[in-house]
Amino acid sequence: MKQFLNFINGEFVATGRTFEKRAPANNQVIGQVHEAGQAEVDAAVAAGRAALKGEWGRMSVVRRAELLHAVADEINRRFDEFLAAELADTGKPHSLASHIDIPRGAANFKVFADIVKNVPTESFQMTTPDGGTAISYAARSPLGVIGVICPWNLPLLLMTWKVGPALACGNTVIVKPSEETPATATLLGEVMNAVGIPKGVYQVLHGFGPGSAGEFITRHPGINGITFTGETRTGEAIMAAAAKGVRPVSFELGGKNAGIVFADADFDKAVAGITRSAFENCGQVCLGTERVYVQRPIFEKFVQALKDKAESLKIGPSELPGVGLGPLISAEHKAKVLGYYAQAVEQGATVVTGGGVPDMPGEYAQGHFVQPTIWTGLPETASVIREEIFGPCCHIAPFDTEEEAIALANATDYGLATTVWTQNLGTAHRVANAIEVGLCWVNSWFLRDLRTAFGGAKASGIGREGGVHSLEFYTETKNIMIRL
Ligand SMILES: NC(=O)C1=CN([C@@H]2O[C@H](COP(=O)(O)OP(=O)(O)OC[C@H]3O[C@@H](n4cnc5c(N)ncnc54)[C@H](O)[C@@H]3O)[C@@H](O)[C@H]2O)C=CC1
Ligand SMILES: O=C(O)/C=C/C=C(\O)C(=O)O
């Protein structure tokens, strides 16, 4: 049986306290995960602090960048191992992990290594009161030991999205992968040793949130900043922990994202786009679309077309050729999603398609598969329209005017992402500016440029990462003023 060990100070460490990792596609146990306790967290923090004072802390930015390029190259060299580990943990389609998760895992190191090497800091010259001259310039230094708390939906991609810039800026990191997805973070420890990243720079502690590694990391006074992706309620708990010591947080939290389709949109592209944004990764993407608003003249045609697309998705395990929809991550998450499927019916939804569990052959009958599901006819107050479900489902409602679409899209506590479909540039600009979100895609979805700001408004997050915005979080900026 595979053992997922902690990675502390360059060594793989067993703890004797283990929990099971099960495969989402058939619910079989595939590994034992070694849970870290307070002692392991203390050891990792001490090693992280020592690394800041050692070779890593003294290393030039050019050498750091070379090492991070080597990390990316090593991930690519071991691409198949990372792919297999991610597929085993998540059950997602092979095509998805091989085109998005693993390549982005490598790219996150290269992009931020290059940004840190090339982005200047500000400098000003001023006249002093006595007519002399002074110059000031900004210098960046690492924040320190960063706690990186990760979710299970895009495990390697989201973890390296934080670890890449944190290390590029000269910090050390302690990663707590989700209890559901321990594999790729652990494998990355082997990569760090292989390319010569000093001990204590990248560390991995396994476990849960409250009363376990997650809470112990976020409460530890030796952690200088916390970056987290996950549920909004968890963000609130982490923020409370970070208040002690006034430590900075960077949060990318939940969403209840709208898709807005205008009657003038390229119909086929809009249907294909919403199919992806509602069902990709079995709906387990924080940027996904769970509320779709379609302009009335094309409403019926759009509902029928999305139904056809949903029903054509092949449901199955990662390795099934042409599979479009994998399982949900866990039995617990399946119960949550099916709970919303039941609530939708209780609240009077018309079930356009899905709403249940597909018939799966053999061992896959034990897996966490659910049907892609579309509803219409619910009031905007219904729980499935207000709350993040994180499953392969969406509600579609008609709208008449641009103002109405904007009001509907904004009527949520969340503010992460929107996708707008129109061929009118004026409409696109107006709507994009009026929507209260951190990310607005027009005629696209999940199109990423890693140099741009990424994050959520309202209850969907605090701060932005990406490009130079990541440097703002992962460094302290010092102003140095010199009287000439
Ligand atoms: N990217 C997103 O927006 C994500 C949203 N979700 C949503 O969250 C729901 C619950 O999924 P979970 O995996 O339980 O998400 P979660 O937000 O509870 O967990 C994410 C990470 O935070 C850790 N964690 C939990 N409580 C903590 C605490 N008090 N202190 C420190 N670390 C803590 C977990 O161990 C995990 O590593 C899902 O059903 C889904 O709706 C889940 C994953 C990602
Ligand atoms: O950084 C990205 O490209 C994707 C981010 C996606 C999430 O944060 C999520 O689904 O949780």
From TrEMBL:
<dbReference type="GO" id="GO:0016620">
    <property type="term" value="F:oxidoreductase activity, acting on the aldehyde or oxo group of donors, NAD or NADP as acceptor"/>
</dbReference>
<dbReference type="InterPro" id="IPR016163">
    <property type="entry name" value="Ald_DH_C"/>
</dbReference>
<dbReference type="InterPro" id="IPR016162">
    <property type="entry name" value="Ald_DH_N"/>
</dbReference>
<dbReference type="InterPro" id="IPR017628">
    <property type="entry name" value="OHmuconic_semiald_DH"/>
</dbReference>
<keyword id="KW-0520">NAD</keyword>
<dbReference type="InterPro" id="IPR029510">
    <property type="entry name" value="Ald_DH_CS_GLU"/>
</dbReference>
<dbReference type="Pfam" id="PF00171">
    <property type="entry name" value="Aldedh"/>
</dbReference>
<dbReference type="InterPro" id="IPR016160">
    <property type="entry name" value="Ald_DH_CS_CYS"/>
</dbReference>
<protein>
    <submittedName>
        <fullName>Betaine-aldehyde dehydrogenase</fullName>
    </submittedName>
</protein>
<keyword id="KW-0560">Oxidoreductase</keyword>
<dbReference type="InterPro" id="IPR016161">
    <property type="entry name" value="Ald_DH/histidinol_DH"/>
</dbReference>
<feature type="active site">
    <location>
        <position position="252"/>
    </location>
</feature>
<dbReference type="InterPro" id="IPR015590">
    <property type="entry name" value="Aldehyde_DH_dom"/>
</dbReference>
<comment type="similarity">
    <text>Belongs to the aldehyde dehydrogenase family.</text>
</comment>
<feature type="domain" description="Aldehyde dehydrogenase">
    <location>
        <begin position="16"/>
        <end position="480"/>
    </location>
</feature>
